[in-house]
Amino acid sequence: MSAMKNILTKQLANWIVIEMKLRTYHWHVRGPQFFTLHAKFEELYGEAAGHIDELAERLLALGDNAVLSLAETLRNASVQESGGKESSEQMVAAIANDFSLLIEELRVGQSYAESLGDITSADLLQDIAAGLEKHVWMLNAYLGVPAQSAIRLASSAGE
Asked: What's 67's DSSP letter?
């Protein structure tokens, strides 16, 4: 398996897990922030579905296969499934942390794609990372985490 395929497969797997996690949170969020978070999680799982399609199609365009099973997805993902018992704040923190981890992985993948001259993959990964940076800032603002800490969190997620 080529390194570029590994990078794209990992991201595809991550987004499949995150989409399911966001759907679970959307269905199970409770409390005073229900309406806000219910809508936000729906927005984010819709966005995740778009990333899943883009990443799978990029793999296919490169002559590779997309992940073929849920078992393969879970083997390749670096993010974890939802435990199902999180409070609304824990849900937001989990998504912010997942997105921070993905930013780090996407930046590594972008750099590698650029070194290969694969500008299409590099641009795809960069676009996803840029959107996630804004989401991490907003999710951490919701949690009351200062912006500087949110940036540190995103940049140290891969350490």
From this structure: P
How much is the pLDDT for 139? 96
pLDDT at 148 over 80: no
Domain that holds residue 40: 3-156
CA distances to 111, 113, 136 from 116, rounded to whole Å, are 9, 5, 29
Query: What are the pLDDT digits (tens) for 89-115?
Result: 999 999 999 999 999 999 999 999 999
Q: pLDDT tens digit string along 7-56? A: 999 999 999 999 999 999 999 999 999 999 999 999 999 999 999 999 99
CATH number for the domain that contains residue 131: 1.20.1260.10
Tell me how far CA of residue 8 lies from CA of 106, 137, 159, in angstroms: 9, 25, 20
CB 37 within 8 A of CB 91: yes
Overall number of domains in the chain: 1
The pair of structure tokens assigned to 86 is 């999180």
